[in-house]
Amino acid sequence: MNGFAKTPEPPYYAVIFSSQRSEDVAGYGEMAEKMVALASKQTGFLGVESARDEGLGITVSYWDSLESIKKWKENSAHKVAQEKGKSTWYQNYAIRVCKVERQSFFEM
């Protein structure tokens, strides 16, 4: 995941996933990569951006509709990852769903 997601002109939706991981992160990286690959094949997926430091991680995925977000949340493989996150990988997390109404970019 390098650079900014190539999103269309608004409106579209963003799912912001903020997390603090636990000390047990065995298998986390592999699952995260698998989820990005799987999400990118889902109808309505527009892109993803992610950043993490030692304490806080933020991943923003972009979607064309609320229905696409709902279908991703209900994806069976994604549900397995969600449960593993709750039971093992995360101390806590927050999910926020937003409608993007305006965007601008700066490039050199």
Automatic annotation (TrEMBL):
The keyword Heme does not apply. Coiled coil: none annotated. GO terms for molecular function: monooxygenase activity. Transmembrane segments: none annotated. Pfam families: ABM. Residues 11-84 form the ABM domain. Keywords: Monooxygenase, Oxidoreductase. Gene3D superfamilies: 3.30.70.100. The keyword Cell cycle does not apply. SUPFAM superfamilies: Dimeric alpha+beta barrel. PANTHER family: ABM DOMAIN-CONTAINING PROTEIN, BLL5343 PROTEIN. This is Antibiotic biosynthesis monooxygenase.
